[in-house]
Fold this protein.
Amino acid sequence: MLSEITDNKQKIITTALNLFAKKGYDAVSTLEIANAAGITKPTMYYYFGSKEGLLSEILSIHYNRLLSDLESAASLPEDIALTFFRMMRIYFDYALKNKDFIMFKLSTFNRIGEDVTYLLSREYTDRESSIIKHVFDVAASYVGNIRGKEDLCTMTFVGVAHAAIGAYFHTGDETLLSDETIYRLRQQFLYGIYS
Amino acid sequence: MLSEITDNKQKIITTALNLFAKKGYDAVSTLEIANAAGITKPTMYYYFGSKEGLLSEILSIHYNRLLSDLESAASLPEDIALTFFRMMRIYFDYALKNKDFIMFKLSTFNRIGEDVTYLLSREYTDRESSIIKHVFDVAASYVGNIRGKEDLCTMTFVGVAHAAIGAYFHTGDETLLSDETIYRLRQQFLYGIYS
DNA sequence: CAATTTATATACCGTTTGGTATACTGTGAA
DNA sequence: TTCACAGTATACCAAACGGTATATAAATTG
């Protein structure tokens, strides 16, 4: 068994995710994935059963990693300032270390309807929202002004995270994902632009 | 000439945009568009030359309308609070009246790479960013604390707008795009969550 | 050593893809 | 009445699509 050396399964996952991020799921063919990964189509179908199965496994691996990290970061919601920093740091780190996945995530996050990538991502994005929502729910119990705005805060938090990461992809400027940026975003989030 | 009555060209545009929004550009075939629009493929190719030509015209029509509205709303950047409201109102109104287009816009906004929808949208999204950026550039001249954070503000503004519209599409709750929501978002933007 | 399982490739399938050659039809101008 | 042209449809194309039947070679297991 050469799989420990060659590890074709992992190669297929990495290659496919890269192509999906660059061109979009539907624009990438199974043959293109096979060629780029240096294998043949039946090998891909042996491991994943279908193109959709391949996407499903990619989503499972990365979302579970990301959401697990996010859950750790959200485990001390009593300190909203600290938790804001930690959660944003998780997003930025994941974007820096797993560019392809986060690029793909961003391009599917606001999808809706019959799109395959949306349907398969939904369970994870729902979990993601609820983790963040919980932070603001707890925060509302001791920061009165948040009360009634928990959903708004959740929405804004994710929106800002995505916007910053999107800007990083657009410009390539890594300082957009630095601690300094998080401090500024947090300052603005907590005290507004006049602070 | 029945075109004034039937108006097949307009029908194709509306139908195609609806399918693109629901399933994604690459997942929709020209035959599917033709069938849904009640015409045949050659008719579509007569008007638009190619599938890409059709997409291009859709983007041109809607982005030009949206950006023209946005420019009007941004014409008094001396009052940042007022301008914030006006610009957000433009986005929300367009989302309410042209659901399909904004849905499609959201799903392509954070794209990058070789994706056709990204490449064809880019000229418009660049213009969009620069309109908003200009507002914060002017604001920075009289609100000292904004200085150096113009790009951050632009990024945040667009991120928040998209997040709110995305939440509306997700839940169907129209109050997410009400004046009341804009007031809250503005309050948070200007003074933070403690306000 | 024989049987089975894992991992791979060759060669193929029916269907769908974006796109077109060609012909027809109704309308307005000369 | 003839002509041109805008608009539309029938019927087709080569290429690419997602997926598979089958063979094969190496490794694991009895």
DSSP finds ten helices and no strands in chain A.
